[in-house]
Amino acid sequence: MIHKLSALQRSARSHGHAIPHVLGGNLEMTLGAIRAAEALDSPLALGWAPEVFAGIPMEFALPLLLSAAERAAVPVAVQLEHGKSYEQVARAVKLGVDSVMFDGSDLPFEENVAKTREIVKLAHALDACVEAELGSVGGSAVRGSTADPTGYETDPELVLDFIGRTGVDSLAISFGNVHGPYSGEPRIDLELVARIAAITEVPLVMHGGSGLPDAIYPAIVAAGISNVHFYSGIARHAWEELEQKVGDDRYPPYHELVAHGVEFFERKTRHVIGLLGSAGRAADVSRRRAQHAPEV
Ligand SMILES: [Zn+2]
To answer: Which of 24, 76, 257, 266 is exposed most, by the fewest CB atoms within 10 A?
Structure first.
């Protein structure tokens, strides 16, 4: 069943876990992720990032994600990730997506506020929720590089001003997390997360969740993160796994690769569900929905 991402994030925050967020880039990724969430009774977020899957039109991809989410036995949110323009967000909402992210993190603060506010106005009028980014998560899942000089940490002094003026439903923050692989020792600033979580009830989101030691995730959740994005750490191993599966057969039938792909993404998603403590939490969301008025 489809749920707004903001509803899943709020439920996770109040129950002390975080929502696993993986990309639904194709059928294998989408099906594998949903099978994992159903098997572990976990809520799930499926993202679509136009920059990562630049060769696939969102008009093909988003209906696939929505249809899979609708049929899922657990709550699944479908989000347009890193929307870069009003037009891109509007197209996704028109396709039926009720959770969008507008990423104005490369803009000056005032411009990020102004553009995010416009997106929020549009999305809320059409009953969709909005995540924005304050500070800038560096690195790139597309280029696989961490050498991004534009990444900088979220300034906690700006958080309430940003949320108050934009009306966003959740906030991606930067605290040492990066997209793509980390170069060198990651420096994750959990004190900064806790400081921001203490001043707002708006759920906080971590992008660039791959590449950290498993033991750190409970602390990330405890500090106040309610939603963690994973892609690079999963995707990087897909090819070697498929190579191993086909072994010496240089001409494996393609449908066998697809089947292995589904199995691979299911296993990887099961792992990240375990890291975030969301197994067995699917029913929390429905209970919460029954107790509250319709949510934006
Ligand atoms: Zn991201």
So the answer is: 257
* Spacing, Cα 229 to ligand 1 middle (Å): 7
Q: Pairing mode, if any, of strands 76-83 and 129-134?
A: unpaired
Ligand 1 centroid to 255 CA: how many Å? 30
Most confident of 171-185, 220-234, 238-252: 220-234
Cα 82 to ligand 1 centroid, rounded to whole Å: 6
H runs (alpha helix) in the chain: 5-15, 27-40, 58-71, 86-94, 109-125, 156-166, 190-199, 217-223, 232-235, 238-246, 254-276, 282-291
| Mean pLDDT value across residues 10-26 | 96
pLDDT at 183: 77
Tell how far the Cα of 253 is from the centroid of ligand 1, in angstroms: 33
Q: How far is the CA of 291 from the centre of ligand 1 (A)?
A: 32
C-alpha to C-alpha distance for 104 and 118, rounded to whole angstroms: 12
Does 191 have pLDDT greater than 60?
Answer: yes
Which one has a higher pLDDT value, 254 or 173? 173
pLDDT at residue 60 greater than cutoff 70: yes
Report which listed range, 149-153, 222-226, 280-284, is most confident. 222-226
Q: Where in the chain are the domains?
A: 5-291
For the whole prediction, is pTM greater than 0.85? yes
Q: Is 58 helix (H, G, I), strand (E, B) or coil?
A: helix
Rounded Cα distance between 51 and 88, Å, is 11
Query: 39 C-alpha vs ligand 1 centroid, how far in Å?
Result: 26
CATH for the stretch 5-291 = 3.20.20.70
> Is the model more confident about 184 or about 145?
184
Q: What angle do helix axes 27-40 and 58-71 make, rounded to 10 degrees?
A: 20
Please provide residue 176's backbone torsions phi and psi, each rounded to the nearest 5 degrees: 105, -10
CA 141, CA 49: separation in Å to the nearest integer? 10
